[in-house]
Amino acid sequence: MRVVKPNQIGILSRPYDHNNKFRLGVTGLILFPFAEPRYPMTESALWLLVGKELGEIVLDESMPKHHGEILMLANAYSPGGKPRGVVRAALELDGKLLKEVAVVGDRTWKDGVPTEPEPFVMKSIRWEGAFGGEKFKPNPLGKGFSPQEGDPLPNIEDPKRFITSMRQTPDPVGVGPYDITWPQRMGKAGTYDKEWLEKFYPGLATNIDWTFFNVAPLDQQIPGFFRGDEELVFKNMHPEHTELRCKLPEVELRCFMRRRRPGGEEVETEIEMRLDTLWLFPHASHGILVFHGSAPIREDDASDVTLLYMACEDLGQRKPLEHYQKELERRLSSETGAVAALDDKPLMPRLRGEMARPPSPADEMAGFVAWENLTHANMMKKGERQVAAARAVLVEYGLDPDQHGPPPVQAIDSSGSIEELLARAEKIELEMIEERKKAEEAMAKKEEELKALCATLGVDFEEIQKEWRGPFKGGPPELAAEKDVARLKQFAEDTRAAGFDASEIDEYLADQSFMEMVVAQDKAVLEAYRIGAQDREAADLLGEEESRRLREELIAAHARGESLAGRDLTGADLSGIELPGANLEEALMERCDFSKANLSGAKLSRAVLVRANLTEARLDGADLTMANLSKATCSKTSFEGGKLTEVMLIGTELVEANMDGVVVERATLQETKLDRCSMRRINAEAITFDGLNLAGTSFSKAILTDAVFMKCKLDRADFTEAQLGGATLYECRANEAIFAKIRGKSLRVVESTALVACDFREADLEEACLRGAILSRSDFTNARAPLADFSECNMQDARLYHLSAQQARFIRTNLRGANMVGADLFEAMLAKADIGGTDLSGANLYQADMAMVRGDNDTKLRDTIRVRARIRPLYSDKVQDIDDGPPEGVLIVKSDAPSEPKRAPEAPKATSPARSADVVDPAAKEPEPPAPIPMPAPIPIAPPMPIAPPMPIAPPSPAPLPVDMTPVPVPPPPVSRPQPAFDRTADVGEFVQRFREALQSGLPFGGTSGAPPGEKADDPAPSKPLPDPGMTAAIPAITEEQIRAMTENMIPFPQARAISTPPVAPVPKPQNATIAFAAVPDPEDVLPFSPAPGSPAEPRLNPAPAGPNLPFAPASHSPPGSSASPPTLTLEQYALLYIELWREPARAAEIRARYGVANEAAWASLHASWQEKFSKDSALRQRWSDYVARGMKSSG
After folding, report:
1. pLDDT tens-digit readout, 1010-1045
2. Which of 213, 388, 516, 1037 is deepest in the core (most CB within 10 A)?
3. Residue 452's closest CA among 461, 462, 439, 463?
4. In angstroms, rounded to a whole number, what is the distance separating the alpha carbons of residues 1091 and 833?
5. Which of 579, 614, 607, 565 is nearest to 593 (CA)?
6. Prediction pTM value
7. Per-domain boundaries in the chain
C-alpha cells in the first residue's frame, strides 16, 4: 500500500470484519500548537510528542467511533505556583464546563479518617492516582480500594463526592482512555459463542455495541462529532497560565483510496473523514486532531488497497476533485515526484497572512542539524575535489582555469522557504533544458559548417578530427613541473645573456611555495587520470622495439631488487614477463599487454591498468588496492588470494577468472562482465553487483554480507555455504542456482526475483524476506527459516521436507504440489495459501494460522499436529459484493457516513453484554455502522505506533474448533480475562494434562462433548477414531520437562507408531467427562477446506481402543502383566520407559505395568528384542541413547 500525503499528516489504517463484510478503517492525525493552531507541525514532531507523553498508552485503535470524545494527558498545577492541598482542574468546551476533577495532595487513613492533604505544586492526572486497586476491575491501576489503616487515599476525586469513609467505593475519576480489558468497555464487546465461532470468527460479534470504541470517560464524550472550530479553556492545567485558551485549527481532511478489482483494474474512492477525537496535552500546549473514516474492501487484510491519499483543507472550503487528481499524478510521476513530494502547499490549507510563524522549529529538528551540517561538509569536500581535478587538467594544457574551467563550489544557501526553493528548482531545471537544447543546436550547426569548409578545401574531415584531439589525446598526461622549471631556468639565462635583469625570474625559482604549487598541480592532473582514464581516448601502443627495450629494463631492475613504482609502461607489450613480487605501485600501465605474465604477489596499489590485457595472467596474492582495471580484459586470469579493495572494475571483462579468496570490499562494478568466474571464499561485504551476468559463477563459502545483486543474472550460480546475511537480490534471475547451507539471516529477495528449481537444502534463512519470489520446484529440505516471510511466493512443487519454519509467513503462497512432510510450522501463518495437492504428512501445525487456505482432495494432512491451529474462516470462492461504481481513474465520493445529522441522542452509558435482540446497532438507523474492530493488527502507515494490544477470544464454552492464538484484537466477554500469547514452556503441561483426560474419558484427543462446562457430555460417535497409537503410548508417560526437551530438539514423538493389533473392548467412559480445551477439531471438521462432493475423504488411521490400564493397544488379547509376549514399543516409547524408571525408581512396578511389561519374562523379552535390533543397527542405538540422554538432562 502506497501513501501520498503532506508532511503534516500522520496516517494509520486497520482492516476489520463484521458480519463477514470487510472494511478498512483509516485514521488521520494532525498535531497543532495551542498558540498557532493554524500552523500544524510535522508528522515526525507528532510521533516524538506521542512517544514522550503517552509511553505505553494507546494513542488510537484506528477504528471509526460512534460519536466524539476528548482524551487528555494532563497535570494539575496550583495557581501562582504556591503549594496547595487541593486544586480543581477543569476543561470547558465552547464556554460550557465539560470536565472538572479535584486533585488532592497525598493522604493516608488514620483512625478511619483521612489525614490532611500534603500541599503540592504539580500532580499528574493519571489512572494511577484515581480510586482503584489490583482487585478493583474498573481501575486496577489505582489506589484506595479495600483500604487498611495507613493506606494512601486516591489523589484524583470527583469534586462533588469526596471520599470520607473507608467503606466508600466511588467510580474512578480520570481524563485518559479506558483500557480495553476494563469493564467500562468490555461490557460492550458483544457475544462470542459457538454461533459466532462457526459463522463470524474472527470478526466482530454481530451484537457489538459500537460505543465500545469510545474510550474516554462518559463525561468527556459528546453527542455527534466535532466541527473543527470549537474553543477550549483549560483551568489549572498549565505551569504558567492559570487559564489557557485555545481554538481548534478549523480544518478538515480529505481521504482517497485506490483499490484493485478482481480483474486487475483499479478504482478510486473517497472516504469521508470525521473529526471524532481530540487528544489534548495542556501542559505541553499541544493537541492532536484525530479523524476517522472507513470504506468497504474485498480482502480481510486490505491487500487489494494499493494507495491511500490524504490532504487537509480549510473547513467548509472543499477543493474540486480535479485538483487532487492533478496533484496525485504529479506526485506519482517519475519525473516530477521527487520535487512534488517536498511541496505540501497544494495539499494543505492556506495560512492566514496576519498570523506570525511559530518562533522556532528547533524542537522539531532536534538531532537533525548536526547530521545536516556533516552532510553539507561532505558534499562540499567532494565538490571541491572534483572541481580541483577539472581545473588541473586545464592547467596541464596551458588553459586558464578561471576562464575555461568550472567555477568554485558555492556554499549551499539553506535560507528561504520551501516554496522559494521549489520555485527556484523548477526555474533552474527549465533553464538547463533550454540551455542544453541551444548547445546541441549550436554544435550541430558548427559541425555542418566545418564539414562544408573541409569539402571546399578538399580536406578529410575525419583526419582533421583525429589531429585536433591535441591536448585531449589518450595516455598519461604530460607533467609540467620539471619541464616548466627547466624552461624558466633557460629563459632566465637567455635574459641575462641579452643584458636584461632576470632577478624576478630567479625569485620565482627560489620560491619554495611556487615550486610546491607546480608540483601540486601535477599531482592533481595525475590523480584525475588515475580515476578517469577509462573516459579518455585510448592510449597509443608502443612499437615492438620500444617494448623490447622496456621489457629488458624491467627484468634487469627486478633482478637487482629495485622498485618499479610509478613507472610509465603505457602501451607496452610485456606478455609472458616474469615479475613476481614486483613493486609496481602507482605504475601507469594503460593498454599494457600482460597476457600469460606472472605478477603473483606484486604490489599494484593505485596502479592504472585501464584497457590492459591480463588474459591468463597470474596475479595470485597481488595487492590491487584502489587500482583502476576499468575496461581491462581478464580472461582466465587468476587473482586468487589477492586484495582488490576499492578497485575500479568499470566495463571490465572477467571471463572464467579465478577470484577465489579475493578481498573485494567497496569495489566499483559498473557494466562489468563476470562470466563463469570462480569466486569461492571471496570477501565482498557491502558490494553492489549492478546489472551483471553472473551465470554459472561460484560464490561457495564467500562472504557477501549486505551485498546487493541488482538486476543480475545468477542462473546456475553456486552460493554453497556462503554468508548472505542482510544481502539483497533485486529483480534477479537465479534459476537452478545453489544456495545450500548458506547463512542468510535477514536475506531480502524482492521484486519478483526468479529462483526456480534452486537448491536451499540446509540453508539458514532466519528472518529472511522472500515475499513474492518465484520459488517453484526449489528444494528447502532440512532448511531453517524461523520468522521468514514467504508470503505471495510461487512455491508450486517445491520440496520443503522437514523445513523448520516456526512463526514463518506463507500468506497467499502458492504451495500446490509441494512436499512439506515433517515440516515444523509452529505458529506459522498460512492464511489464504493454496495447498492443493500439498503433502503435509507429519507436519507440526501447532497454533498455525490456516484460515481460508485452499486445498483439494489430494492435500495430505495425515499425522499432522493441529493443536490450536486456526482453520476458521474456511476458504470460499465467494467474492465480497462491493459496488465499485464508475470505471478506473474516476474519483468518486463514497461515504459510509449516516444520512441523518451527525448527532447521537445522548452520551451513552455502560451496558452489560447484549444479545442480538437487545443491542441497538447503528446500522438500523444509519446506512452504514460507524465501524467495528479489526481482525489483524492495524497496518501502521506512519512511524510505528503502540496500537491497541492484541486480544484473543476465549469462547465461553468448549467449541469444536480451536481458538485463534494469533493476535486478534476482539475483546472476550467479561467472564473471561484475555488469553495470553502462547508460551511453549507454559502450555506443555496443559497439553499433556488434557491429552491424558481425553484418554481416560474415552474421547478422541481434541474432541469435545459440545456441552457447556459442568454438564454431562454425550457419548462420542463410534466412528470417530481414538488418538494415534504412537502418541497415545508416548504422551501419558512423559513428564512435562521431557516433553519440553523433546519439542525443543524436535524429537518426533507424536509421529511414533505402534504395530497394528486386533481391537479390544473399549473402556466405558466416566460420567460427566468433558474436555474444556480447544485442541484439534473432530476429524470431520479438521480439514481447513471442503473436498469436492462425492470425493473420497483423506485416509485416516483406525487404531484399536485402549485397554483397561494401558494407553496403547497390547500386542495380544492377553491381560496386562501376563507371561505372553510384551507389547511392541516404538523406539521413542522404549526410551521414555527408561527415562521414567530412572526418574522415579520407587514406582518402577507401576511404570512397567503401564507399559505392559510388569512381569520379568515380558521385561526380559522386551530388552532382548531391542538389544538384537541395536546389534544390527548402531545408528538406531545412537538415536535411542540420544533420546534417553536428552530426557534425563531435561529432568535434572
Report:
1. 333 333 333 333 333 333 333 333 333 444 444 444
2. 213
3. 461
4. 16
5. 614
6. 0.61
7. 74-175, 388-538, 984-1194
